[in-house]
Amino acid sequence: MPMMIVTMLGTGIGGGIGVVIGNTLVGIFLGAFVGALVGGLLLPRIWRRS
């Protein structure tokens, strides 16, 4: 569930980046990739600490 939220958040950020770049599709893919990367690498570490 948290992974899905992070991916959606990343996609939203990517969409915003895409609008700035002028290529929304690339931005959404980039955002989804970054969101998945952050969800896969950073969230488990934060979970372990708390």
Describe this structure in words.
It contains two helices and no strands. It is elongated and about 40 Å long. The model has no long low-confidence stretch (mean pLDDT 74). The longest helix is centred in the C-terminal third of the chain and has 26 residues, at 24-49. By secondary structure, it is an all-alpha fold. It is 92% helix and 0% strand.
Number of helices: 2
Overall average residue pLDDT: 74
Helix/strand/pairing class, anyone? mainly alpha
- Tell me the helix content: over 70%
Rg from Cα: 12 Å
What is the CA-CA span between the terminal residues?
18 Å
Main beta sheet: none
DSSP, total strands? 0
Shape summary = elongated
Estimate the strand proportion.
under 5%
Low-confidence stretches: none
Query: Which H/E pattern describes the elements?
Result: HH
